[in-house]
Amino acid sequence: MPKTTRSGEPRRSELPSTLQRSDEKAQRTFAEAHDAAMTQYHDEQRAHRVAYAALKNTHEKVGDHWRPKGRSGPSDAQAEGGVRTRRKTAGGVDANASKAHLYQVARELHVPGRSTMSKGELVSAIQKANDRKSRQARG
Fold this sequence. Notes:
The protein is mainly alpha-helical. α2 packs antiparallel against α3 and α5 (99-108) runs parallel beside α6 (119-138). The protein has 6 helices and 2 strands; from the N terminus they run αααββααα. Helix content is 51%, strand content 6%. It has helices at residues 17-20, 24-41, 44-58, 77-80, 99-108, 119-138, and strands spanning 59-62, 65-68.
């Protein structure tokens, strides 16, 4: 099912719940990338992967929604690779951001023990907090 209308607007009802709670640019980025990938690959699962990859270049997941990043670019080691890359993904956390930025996100999400965490530990803790917030938002 297309994620955009004929006029190019995202179909909110067709978007994942975290994107429904995100800004219009995140919704449009995901929807347009998804529809383009469906046209090219004719595979729903692959289209979702392509759409999330496009989204992760411009947005980061914070809690239960996607927020624009300060700079565009890959968010983790998996995103830096190509289609055949098999690296660990950070699930929407901008693992390439500075430790100071990750600390601020962890603070916003009320991650306990954040002041003593390494950068890798912050990424993992933020990812867990994001998953928890998304589950809570879904009910």
